[in-house]
């Protein structure tokens, strides 16, 4: 049969009726090709049985044993617990959903083979809702000889159904159904397997497959698909860029009078990096197509001044500018800076956040609408429908990755008067290694401020074990008594914001007792915006000596008098996060310190990571090292990039593929192949404003 998989609807398969087809369509799975590219997201290893005495929490295992006890409890939350034993150990199997037939069949003496993930509970190890098979005495049951693919869950479609669907499509493929291999010509050059080979392999890994590679996602067959996926994303981003640049933007070529006045009242001169970046931005915004530029600059590198001068350029050309930040406190800081700088020049800076209410709000909205306000600064409140600009020409977004996709889209619409788009400048202090940035943000031009303003004192970083706490407290005391301020950052508790807040509250209470003459403050994620802002204000005004905080301490918060930072359990944090936190100190004239506390013993890697923090202050160098050590940098989760989930590829793990991706993308741009790859891998598309 020579059907083309991208032309055949899912309904062509056995077992796909209107109901299943509708469920699939909901996930944008319409054709047999779509089914084939619904790739396993992971694998389970059912190829060997583990003895019950060797089980460890967290392992996914296949086990066998005999049911030795059986207990049904009928509480509010009924459960069926079976204790499974073999000659050397035991484990509990736990069911919260079960029927009377299961109660009968899972009786004492029954022999089972089970699969599932081992958990630690109060009663010892257990597996909740294991998959199980009955073993008949005298009959042997074969064990799987290949890894079991697990498909990304889709509402209403079970793993069993996914296996049946993919089985059928793989069979068609084996019989010669058509699927275009677009990287066919690149194959030899990069020693890649063919697409069809790779698809068969990742859907149904053969018994002799290298399990470690497959489980880690680095098998050559997976890499073949990862390359194609990264390529599709790259092409998608380029197409997005092209579509934006087809629209027009205001030409911002006004005179330099305003910026000259601004520069002459500034108490410092721009660094050469700031000047270079400004020239890059200037060149962009003088052209009638929207700028799409990402400005990276380490904490404290002076991005705000660059933003201010760019906004001035919009005003000097007769338009409005807007500056948005992801949190109230950051936005307010920008507002204070901009009004301090720009109001003496006779400009009106408007302030809009969720907190601005009633009359003041209406007035601000009016000023933005009539153009009386030259520049609007705010949080995502700027996105609201009620906000209408007179003529927005430049949008600056600080810490852009922290905004939701919808919000970015909404603001861009604000400038979309008569088919014009505002220019966009995205700013970030999160250092991203160069090759990665060029790929993840392939649709953006890149500017980097790679130089700190002169006169910054280096921050001395000290690494100490937790048991030196007394010594550290003495240091905090000494600093604060001498009129300086300090931060105390509490440990990161994976996955539980609640526990993290509780831990911070405890530390706050302890420190308040142990350092009674200091004024302590506490901020954590569970506080509401107002309370958080009130405490940050008090800290900024010097009314608080020691600020105990979880990792929520805002990026960009500027308290120059704070010169000491203590970070507990630093070994649990990512290097980029440590770097961001450390950037809160070293902003004033005093010598600054950062103490990284850790829980001994440290692994070699953990030691090396903390050592990097001790020996370097350069955010980019830290990010590169982090990538090297961890293989996946935490600075680049999909959450941060805003780019939809990748199926098989990972920007960090597969970063070695990126130069190839770039090269292939150059040659494929604007070809049919490009369209075909985008349709195959990005059926949902990439909308402007989405990235
Ligand atoms: P970030 O890039 O982290 O947003 P900021 O814009 O907040 O950095 O700048 C950090 C501090 O450095 C601010 O107090 C700012 O006024 C100051 N600054 C910026 N540029 C210079 C410069 N060229 N020389 C001296 N100080 C500067
Ligand atoms: Mg900043």
Describe the structure.
The protein is α/β, with parallel strands linked by helices and 691 residues long. The chain folds into four domains: 10-43 and 150-216, no CATH class; 48-143, OB fold (Dihydrolipoamide Acetyltransferase, E2P); 257-449, Rossmann fold; 459-616, P-loop containing nucleotide triphosphate hydrolases (Rossmann fold), CATH 3.40.50.300. 38% of the residues lie in helices and 18% in strands. The protein has 24 helices and 21 strands. The strands form four sheets. It has a seven-stranded parallel β-sheet with strand order 11-12-10-13-14-9-15, with helices on both faces. A six-stranded parallel β-sheet has the order 16-21-20-17-19-18, sandwiched between helices. Helix 9 runs antiparallel to helix 11 and helix 20 (604-615) packs antiparallel against helix 21. The protein is globular, with a radius of gyration of 29 Å. Mean pLDDT is 87; it is low at 405-410, 632-643 and 687-691.
């Amino acid at each position: 049969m020579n059907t083309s998989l991208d032309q055949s609807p899912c309904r062509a398969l056995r077992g796909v009726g209107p109901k299943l087809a509708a469920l699939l369509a909901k996930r944008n799975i319409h054709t047999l090709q779509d089914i084939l590219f619904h790739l396993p997201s992971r694998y389970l290893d059912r190829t060997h049985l583990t003895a019950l005495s060797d089980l460890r929490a967290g392992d996914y295992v296949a086990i066998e044993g005999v049911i030795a006890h059986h207990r049904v409890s009928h509480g509010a939350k009924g459960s069926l617990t079976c204790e499974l034993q073999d000659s050397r150990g035991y484990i509990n199997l736990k069911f919260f959903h079960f029927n009377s037939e299961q109660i009968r069949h899972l009786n004492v003496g029954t022999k089972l083979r089970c699969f599932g993930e081992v958990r630690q509970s109060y009663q010892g190890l257990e597996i909740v809702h294991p998959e199980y098979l009955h073993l008949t005495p005298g009959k042997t049951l074969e064990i799987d000889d290949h890894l079991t693919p697990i498909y990304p869950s889709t509402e209403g479609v079970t793993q069993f159904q996914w296996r049946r669907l993919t089985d059928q499509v793989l069979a068609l493929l084996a019989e010669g159904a058509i699927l275009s291999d677009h990287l066919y010509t690149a194959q030899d050059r990069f020693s890649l397997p063919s697409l069809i080979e790779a698809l068969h392999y990742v859907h149904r890994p053969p018994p002799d497959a290298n399990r470690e590679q497959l489980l880690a996602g680095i098998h050559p067959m997976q890499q073949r698909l990862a390359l194609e996926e990264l390529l599709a994303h790259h092409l998608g981003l380029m197409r997005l860029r092209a579509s934006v640049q087809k629209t027009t933007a205001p030409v911002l070529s006004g005179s330099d009078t305003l910026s000259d006045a601004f520069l002459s009242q500034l108490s410092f001169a721009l660094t050469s990096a700031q000047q270079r970046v400004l020239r890059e931005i200037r060149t962009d915004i003088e052209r009638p197509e929207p700028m799409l530029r990402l400005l990276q600059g380490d904490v404290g590198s002076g991005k705000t001044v660059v933003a201010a001068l760019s906004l001035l350029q919009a005003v000097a050309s007769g338009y409005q500018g807007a500056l948005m930040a992801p949190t109230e406190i950051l936005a307010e800081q920008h507002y204070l800076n901009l009004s301090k700088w720009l109001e003496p020049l006779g400009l009106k800076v408007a302030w809009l956040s969720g907190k601005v209410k009633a009359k003041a709000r209406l007035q601000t909205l009016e000023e933005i609408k009539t153009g009386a306000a030259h520049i609007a600064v705010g949080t995502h409140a700027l996105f609201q429908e009620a906000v209408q600009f007179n003529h927005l020409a430049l949008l600056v977004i600080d810490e852009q990755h922290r905004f939701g996709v919808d919000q970015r889209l909404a603001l861009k619409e604000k400038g979309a008067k008569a088919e014009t788009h505002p220019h966009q400048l995205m700013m970030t202090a999160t250092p991203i290694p160069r090759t990665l940035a060029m790929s993840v943000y392939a649709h953006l031009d890149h500017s980097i401020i790679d130089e700190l303003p002169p006169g910054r004192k280096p921050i001395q970083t000290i690494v100490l074990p937790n048991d030196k706490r007394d010594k550290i407290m003495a240091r905090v005391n000494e600093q604060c008594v001498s009129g300086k301020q300090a931060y105390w950052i509490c440990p990161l508790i994976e996955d539980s914001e609640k526990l993290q807040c509780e831990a911070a509250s405890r530390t706050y209470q302890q420190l308040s007792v142990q350092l009674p003459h200091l004024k302590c403050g506490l901020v954590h994620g569970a506080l509401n915006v107002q309370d958080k802002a009130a405490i940050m204000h008090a800290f900024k005004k010097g009314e608080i000596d020691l600020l105990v905080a979880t990792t929520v301490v805002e990026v960009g918060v500027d308290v120059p008098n704070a010169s000491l930072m203590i970070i507990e359990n630093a070994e649990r944090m990512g290097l980029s996060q440590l770097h961001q936190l450390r950037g809160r100190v070293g902003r004033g004239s005093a010598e600054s310190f950062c103490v990284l506390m850790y829980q001994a013993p440290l692994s070699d890697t953990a030691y090396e990571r903390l050592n990097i923090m001790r020996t370097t202050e350069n955010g980019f160098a830290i990010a590169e090292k982090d990538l090297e050590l961890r293989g996946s940098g935490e600075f680049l989760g999909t959450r941060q990039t805003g780019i939809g989930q990748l199926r098989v590829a990972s920007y960090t793990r597969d970063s070695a593929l990126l130069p190839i991706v770039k090269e292939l993308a150059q040659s494929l741009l604007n070809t049919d192949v490009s369209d075909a790859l985008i349709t195959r891998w990005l059926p949902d598309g990439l909308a402007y404003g989405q990235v």
